[in-house]
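To: structure subgroup
Subject: Chain for Friday's discussion

All,

I'm putting the inputs and outputs inline so they're searchable in the archive.
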Amino acid sequence: MASPATPHVTRGPTLPAHRLPYLPKPLDAFNVAPADEARALLLHCLRSLHWSRRLTEHRPYPDLDSLLAAADEAAYDLSPGDLTEALASESLPELPEDTYSAAHTALSAAHAAYEARFGHVFVIYLGDCPREEALDRILEGIRSRLTNDPEEERVVAAEELRRLASSRLATRLRAAGNCTTSHNAPAPGK
């Protein structure tokens, strides 16, 4: 007896593979963005026109580490005028909402003393400091830095600005929704 034949199943036409639309990576979008958009993004990170122009002019960057290294180098090269410009746009770090009023008073007094001595706002990079420790870190920083001479403090403030700018830039370019993009820019390699 012959074995039953396997029935032949006819399938419809094969559909082409589905391709997702190209979504540029934040660094790719930054690299191809119009210069004024790139500078605007950079000015949110460090409010120095010279710094933002320099980084914009040296695009494209192959990776985020290269951009961050260039940002550090450019921050080290800030002139006294560039540093003054950047410091003028900074503000104190925000305190947690539940911080008691006496702490705000202490911070205001310490900041006033700092600004009177150095002529600019106090800047500090808090990095991964837990929010509940931010006030203590800020107050301790102001108090210890009040003992610096003005030139020494400009060097410390410049270093804090450099660290803040690098952190802000990395945060903006790692968060895809916050990156400057050009909707008219071609996908890389096209």
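Points worth raising on Friday:
Helices lie at 26-32, 35-45, 49-57, 64-76, 80-88, 101-118, 131-145, 150-174.
The two ends are 62 Å apart (CA to CA).

D.
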